[in-house]
Design a protein that fits this description.
It is flat, with a radius of gyration of 27 Å. It has helices at 19-40, 49-52, 61-69, 93-107, 130-145, 155-176, 206-249, 258-302, 308-343, 350-400, and strands at 4-13, 42-47, 74-79, 113-119, 151-153, 183-186. It is α/β, with parallel strands linked by helices. Helix 6 runs parallel beside helix 8 (258-302), helix 8 packs parallel to helix 10 (350-400) and helix 9 runs antiparallel to helix 10 (350-400). It has 2 domains: 4-186, Rossmann fold, CATH 3.40.50; 206-400. It has 10 helices and 6 strands; from the N terminus they run E-H-E-H-H-E-H-E-H-E-H-E-H-H-H-H. Strands 1, 2, 3, 4, 5 and 6 form a 6-stranded mixed sheet that branches.
Length: 401
């Protein structure tokens, strides 16, 4: 059965000084389409002035760009050291492009997502243009007053940050709203002219469910491995920063020194980076795992009587899922302990308080989903037990006859 894919158009607006970030956006979009297009039934088309405009004539140059860019579902604006070149009506092309997106949002908030990012990378003294910086600050204040919640970032963190944000945006579109401008496309099917199957209302068969089961389990395991690796890394980094802070505290210097503030700020950034990095896998693993369990249940429903080999396979499958339940049982307490350790971190700064909330929110969701997955897996094991017992009884009846 063809899969329906919703394509969202993303327009990227920025001055010329953030080319590295623009390249990162392109890379993130490509990665999203490769990784999540099937899982979320969505793809993203990136719209940029360099790839989607051509020489033409209009009321003024920016109006030509505006017309050719056309409609979109997601607006991303990035600013760093330059605000851009003034247009006929605005202080820069980026500001005019933001204004178009904001007017669209005011007309219908369901039609566009607006995402603003401000780079915090340092500039050398020779590269600082005070006039440009002042315009950026003014724009930042203006957009905040309009209700825009923006993100500041360091270049090293931007890719993981944007990956997590785009994943959440597309998930929200799918759950709560659908863009009026999103194009629904159908994947092409390979047709074997010697073997044509009539459409039967989208019903899947045993082989289809086998594929879903294997694919979704692999996706779930990949996400869980990612969470495990990032959590282990965070633990090492936090212990390192704690040791640094303890060393400073044992000196004659009191709290509030620049060194202590630096360590605390770095710790908060590490926690923030962790929260952003695990956001997508934490949202994805349980979805994939649930789809795998559903596929396993469908396989059991489609299968009728089992021979001896199949019963053996059923028993092996049941044992595998029992093993998963044991793994979940051992994982939940360790994650709860980790959650408690993060929650107990002292409120040394606003950065730490915010970072703690980001991390603990995600850890709580992970633990809740682990509990739900244990319950769901227990239900599947129960069905497997019933199937095994039914077919063992059936074999005994045949032997007696």
């Amino acid at each position: 059965m063809p899969q329906q894919i919703t394509n969202y158009r993303l327009f990227l607006a920025s001055p010329s000084d953030v080319q590295t970030e623009r390249d990162i956006v392109k890379r993130v979009v490509e990665d999203f389409n490769k990784t999540y297009s099937e899982q979320l039934s969505s793809t993203i088309s990136l719209i940029t002035w360099e790839d989607n405009t051509y020489p033409s004539v209009g009321d003024y140059p920016q109006s030509v760009v505006n017309r050719q860019i056309g409609d979109y579902d997601i607006f991303i604006g990035i600013l760093w050291s330059r605000f851009g070149t003034p247009t006929k009506y605005f202080a820069s092309g980026t500001e005019e492009e933001f204004n178009i997106a904001y007017e669209k949002y005011k007309n219908s908030s369901d039609d566009v997502e607006i995402m603003l990012y401000f780079s915090q990378e340092r500039l050398s003294v020779d590269d600082i243009d005070l006039e440009q910086v002042a315009k950026i600050k003014e724009f930042k204040k203006k957009t905040s007053n309009l209700g825009c919640y923006h993100f500041s970032f360091m270049q090293a963190d931007f890719e993981s940050l944007l990956k997590a944000h785009l994943y959440k945006v597309i998930c929200d579109w799918g759950k709560h709203k659908r863009g009026n401008n999103a194009l629904v496309i159908i994947e092409k099917q390979e047709i074997n002219e010697d073997f044509v199957i009539e459409e039967t209302g989208g019903e899947l068969g045993i082989l289809d469910y086998h594929d879903i089961l294997e694919t979704k389990l692999d996706e779930s395991v990949d996400d869980l491995n990612k969470i495990s690796e990032e959590t282990a890394t965070l633990g090492v980094q936090i212990r390192g920063k704690t040791a640094e802070l303890n060393a400073v505290n044992q000196s004659s210097v009191k709290y509030g020194t620049q060194q202590q503030k630096k360590i605390i700020s770095e710790t908060a950034k590490i926690m923030h980076r962790y929260a952003i990095t695990i956001d997508a896998p934490i949202n994805g693993w349980y979805t994939s795992y649930g789809q795998a369990l559903d596929a396993a249940k469908q396989l059991l429903d489609l299968s009728e009587n089992f021979d001896e080999d199949n019963i053996t396979e059923l028993i092996k499958t049941r044992d595998v899922y029992n093993g998963l339940i044991q793994t979940i049982d051992s994982t939940i307490p360790s994650m709860q302990e980790y959650l408690e350790s993060v929650s107990s971190l002292p409120k040394l700064s606003q950065q730490i308080i915010i970072a703690k909330k980001e991390v603990t929110t995600r850890l709580r969701k992970f633990i809740i989903d682990m509990e739900k997955s244990k319950h769901d897996t227990n239900l599947l094991v129960k069905v497997l037990d019933e199937k095994i017992n039914e077919n063992l009884d059936f074999e005994e009846v045949i032997e007696v006859e």
